[in-house]
Amino acid sequence: MRNIHTLFAGWLLALFCLATNAHAQASTGTDINLDSADNGLLVISYHDIRDDVVRHGDPDLYAVSTQNFAAHLDWLSTHGYHPVSLSQLIEASRGGKPLPPQPVLLTFDDGLRSVYTKVFPLLRAYNYPALIAVITDYVEMAPGRSIDYGYRPFASDDFLTWPQIREMQASGLIEVASHTDNLHHGVQSNPQGNSTPAVITRIYDPAAAAYETPQAYEQRIRDDLARSVQRITDNTGTKPRAIVWPYAAYNSFTNELAAQLGMDVSFDLEGRSTPVTSNLGGLARLLMVDNPTVVSLARELRRDIELQNVRALQIDLDMVYDDDPQQQARNLDALIERVKQVGPSHVYLQAFADPDGNGSADALYFPNRHLPMRADLFNRVAWQLKTRADVKVYAWLPVLGYELKDPAIREALKIQSPESDGIFRLDFTRPEARQIIKDIYADLAINSYFEGLLFHDDAYLRDTELTQLPAEGEDGARTRALIDFTLELRDAAQRWRPKLATVRNLYAQPVLEPQSSAWFAQRLDLFNHAYTHTALMAMPWMEGSRHPERWLDRLVDAVRVQDPNFNSTLFELQTLDWRTGKPIPGEQLRALVRRLQARGVKHMGWYPDDFIADRPALKDARAAMSVRNFPYVEK
After folding, report:
1. Count of alpha carbons within 13 angstroms of residue 417, beta-carbon side
2. Who contacts 173 (Cβ-Cβ below 8 Å, separation ≥6)?
3. Consecutive 10-residue averages of pLDDT for the chain (635 residues)
4. Integer Cα distance of 601 and 111 in angstroms
5. Virtual torsion, Cα 255, 260, 265, 267, nearest 10 deg
6. What is the CA radius of gyration of the chain?
């Protein structure tokens, strides 16, 4: 996998940053610690290997010098790592001979000529097997043809030939994987003209003002993969058993298409290692960036990823939206600049429209089957935040609060509550409502880029509602019922956006007064087991406290009982006193953040972040919510 268009440099670099993420969500809802030191197979992703790579700042961000690459092999060999081949991996996954301790698989993306001239001799010297992923349309390019490879055009001399591939394969050290035939590029993904990876994008046709149909999308991907498999088979005599997705962009659907063509193994770039199971789809890889020395490699492999803390801004997309396209563009630029200057790790981005502020969705910001689309905006903003501001974007959506436009259907499917207040919510025990909400999550993932989900604070149940469900009880039956539904929603989205992290809002009262959990169907211990993080609404002014510091101290003490090391609980502060409409002073917010840090809290965020009015002020936001080592203004 290699950055052909300069446009995608941010995509790959951000994926390298994502490889440091502490957790990825498993299908059961439990966390997998992606740490190569004690958890499965380490896969390292290389691209070009050259003699003349600049130590730092080479125009080719993904090139590694021959000297550094040889040092990597030497270090791995002398520090207990055991090289394995794709064949060994597949055998182990099927219950055959297990892999040796600390197994490592080397992969080389794009089929560059240096794999033959620089890499292959070193692999033979160290007796290291490897996997090369070739873009079959680029092998033996026609004379005069060139490809935009980011920092310069690449021509036929830059890529492997089939005779070279056959020679390496005949050595027994090299196996060939597909990197698609010709899907290593971007396509238009929305009306505003953003370009995103071809494998995961339903192409937007501006002339027809329409998106690619599901049938056309499937046929385009299937045809390309079939061509790639056929070309590899015809030229090497062996069908490929693995696919390395361009830009690490794929979904469960494309994995299924690849598997139908015999490629049961697939690779991405999310995490440092992967446990070896019978499912080899979406194996993590560690991407080599900026010509790392052996010291840098060792540091990365030994780094404690549990120390990676979250700083999150929760953003109202309603503030970006404007009827005037020019004003909307200015609003988006203001958001991007604000996030770049603050430097958080995450943005929780609203994907639904709530102009009346009642907590439920009146419309959505992406194409979907069930609610009006206020504007086709979420994908554009999420992609801009990812590529221009270098943050992880989580889609923030209601769990139950969708105001369907047909009054009769809305009335029939709503939770019939004896309470007069609260957020409008659909009855998730009704199959029709359940399917509608799952469709919405699937449509979000089909049409948008994001890395996680934030489940909105509408997911509560009072003990007077849906009385057909079991009582809460000590086992938290009603809490578990809602959790199970949110994980179904995650799975619906995850078919189109794999390895999604999950965060769910939790009211403070069930933590401070555990007996009140029956009134909310929410429990911190169950949330922390089910989700990547729990976004605890640490909002003393919203709770009517006259002494915010004391109130937060009580909350920290209560959380510590359930989460002693604060690994799973994110404290979400408020920046606005909604009772008075006045902002919380920036210095006070900074003092609260310092107070939480002193008590051991690791993960924090706040809401709202007003990027239009610069509230909280940039200097306060940067001091409180930046993950940079030196969060100061660059002069």
Report:
1. 17
2. 85, 120, 123, 124, 127, 128, 129, 130
3. 41 45 35 45 96 92 97 95 97 95 96 98 97 97 90 94 98 98 96 94 96 97 98 98 96 96 94 88 94 95 82 98 97 98 97 96 97 97 95 98 96 91 94 98 96 97 94 95 98 96 97 93 97 98 95 98 97 96 96 97 97 96 88 53
4. 46
5. -30
6. 25
